[in-house]
Amino acid sequence: MRQVRLPKSEQRMGFVSEAMLLMKMNSFEAAAKMLESHLNDAGLKSSAKVGIMSWISECYLKRNDKEQAAKWAEQAGKAALACTGMSNEERTRRAREEFERALGYYEAINDVTGMGRLATLKYGLHPS
After folding, report:
1. Which of 16, 25, 47, 105 could pair with 66 as two cysteines, CB 3.0-4.6 Å apart?
2. Where does the pLDDT of residue 5 fall: very low under 50, low under 70, confident under 90, or very high at 90 and above?
3. Per the domain annotation, does 3 fall within a domain?
4. Distances (CA, A) of 105 to 5, 31, 59, 102
5. Is pLDDT at 71 greater than 80 in this prediction?
């Protein structure tokens, strides 16, 4: 039987399909860990990393782990700011969005340090 070879781009991102399946099965921790394990894969675009970090945050939120959800949303916002694959406006918009989510999670767990850090990041962004 002949084995089908996927294009390299599909090979690199195949883990996303697996993670989505895990999420559908409500295995959010396993999905988060799988996504985390692929963040440093060679050839992964910085814009894809932002999305993956955001999904990791969502997985932790679905597990009601707001501390980890906040951490990953904050990381996604920082990654968005550093992303060279987005326009300046898109970077700022995406970072603000992620920082707002993280700020809400930090507020929910009453993490004053996290709230202060996120407020500084969020309100320090230039208007888009």
Report:
1. 105
2. very low
3. no
4. 42, 20, 13, 5
5. yes
What lies within 8 Å, CB to CB, of 83 at 6+ separation is 46, 47, 49, 50, 91, 94
* 90-95 own/partner pairs: CB under 8 Å, 24+ apart: 92/125, 92/126, 92/128, 93/128, 94/50, 95/121, 95/125
pTM above 0.90, yes or no: no
At 22, list the tokens. Answer: 């895990």
**Which spans in 63-111 are helix H?**
66-82, 88-108
Please check whether residue 99 lies inside any domain of the structure: yes
- Which residues, 6+ apart, have CB-to-CB distance to 48 below 8 Å? 13
CATH number of the structural domain spanning residue 35: 1.25.40
